[in-house]
Amino acid sequence: MRLPKARLDQVLDRFHEVEARMGSATDGAEIVRLSKEHAELKPVVDAVQGLARARAEMADLEAMTADPEMAAMAEEELRALTDRLPELEREVALLLAPRDADENASAVLEVRAGTGGDEAALFAGDLFRMYSRYAASRGWRIELDSATEGDAGGYKEIIATVTGEGVFGRLKFESGVHRVQRVPTTESQGRIHTSAATVAVLPEVEDVEIEIHDKDIRIDTFRASGSGGQHVNTTDSAVRITHLPTGIMVTSSEKSQHVNRDKAMKNLRVRLYDMQRQAKDLARSDSRKSQVGSGDRSERIRTYNYPQGRVSDHRINLTLHSLPQIMEGDIDPLLNALIAEDQAARLADLEAEFG
Predict the structure, then answer these.
(1) Are the C-beta atoms of 24 and 18 separated by less than 8 Å?
(2) Which of 113, 205, 272, 354 could be a cystine partner for 120, CB 3.0 to 4.6 Å?
(3) CA dist 219 → 76, 143, 249, 265, 270 (Å)
(4) Separation CA 171–CA 109 (nearest Å)
(5) Count of CA atoms in the C-beta half-sphere (13 A) of 187
């Protein structure tokens, strides 16, 4: 992709403008905003300047090929640089392509049992364990928000906050219906059953402005249920907040009612923000006809086939015969393929823009 010089100069000009304003700004909020933009622009500028140096060096080498004494060396270096240039241009193009504003955000992870009864709850538990192991491998922190256990184990529903750098950017394509095919432990005839669980990954953005009016919410307190004994919450400290215009309902059941209210309001903001994101995602996927990142959580995205030891992602027609490793948290091969597909779509959008 031949990136136009005017577009590259535009990035450099904006970077220098931000640097100049940072030096004179006195308002705290403006300094924070400029610092954030500076940090986002810096890797783009570094790549743009690297590409500019490579193009300038190519021009010098081409001129040197006219010198008989330097021609052989210049032609060799020119060939090497010519081979490297497309990768430099691709790196810059990816940085220039429209990217998810929430890429580096932490996330709220929700896993719910779908069709399949007890087996679906067990599978939901397996998925949550898979994500937990993956998070641990990347140094992310998982904080459990709420959980409803299945009658035979696993979870009917489990919600957790995953905190770390780039969590949402790595996990956002996991949203959707995950299907499992295996023989349940309760199956005496050895028949393969199919069940499902749904996964939702929502960005947790702390500085997003979501206006919530008091008249639009109803707050209820109730006694949380537990597993018995000392774990049962014996006071009405659990909090349920219902957002009346949308019907969104969030709960938190820690021991402190004050903590629960704060947690529930935070989760409500996350869900309202996610509604806005889903509308944008749907518009984007309609415009570029890409299933990856469409935001449709009713879509069956992946099948885990235990008898054959394989995992198939239906959006990108990828099948991996490494189910045991994947269920232990080694999901980077899946995530990397999905991210690469999304990058290809974004590059195609940019190429169409440049013509």
Answers:
(1) no
(2) 113
(3) 72, 23, 10, 10, 17
(4) 9
(5) 13
C-alpha pair distances (Å), 29 with each of 17, 130, 261: 17, 40, 28
Task: Tell me the two tokens of residue 213.
Answer: 């009016």
213 Cβ neighbours under 8 A, 6+ residues apart: none
Cβ contacts of residue 80 below 8 Å, gap of 6+? none
Cβ 151 vs Cβ 118: under 8 Å: yes
Residue spans of alpha helices (H) in the chain: 5-24, 28-64, 71-96, 117-137, 167-171, 257-288, 323-327, 332-354
Q: In whole angstroms, how far apart are CA 20 and each of 35, 37, 39, 341? A: 11, 13, 14, 37
Please list, residue by residue across 175-210, b when 16 or more beta carbons sit within 10 angstroms of its beta carbon and e when fewer do. Answer: bbbbbbebebeeeeeeeeeebbbbbbbbbbbeeeee
Q: How many CB atoms lie within 10 A of CB 216?
A: 12
CA torsion sign for 281, 285, 290, 294 is positive
- The number of C-alpha atoms within 13 Å of 347 and in the hemisphere containing its C-beta is 16
pLDDT at 32: 87
Torsion region of 212: left, alpha or beta (phi above 0 gives left; psi -120 to 50 gives alpha): beta
Reported confidence tier of residue 229, pLDDT bands at 50, 70, 90: very low
Nearest Cα residue to 18 out of 43, 36, 44: 36
| CB 180 within 8 Å of CB 306 | yes
Look at phi and psi of residue 142 and say left if phi exceeds 0, alpha if psi is from -120 to 50, else beta: beta
Least Cα distance to 128 among 143, 116, 110, 140 occurs for: 110
Dist CA 327 CA 304 (whole Å): 9
Cα–Cα distance, 113 to 134 (Å, whole number): 20
Asked if 49 and 16 count as a contact pair (C-beta separation under 8 A), the reply is no
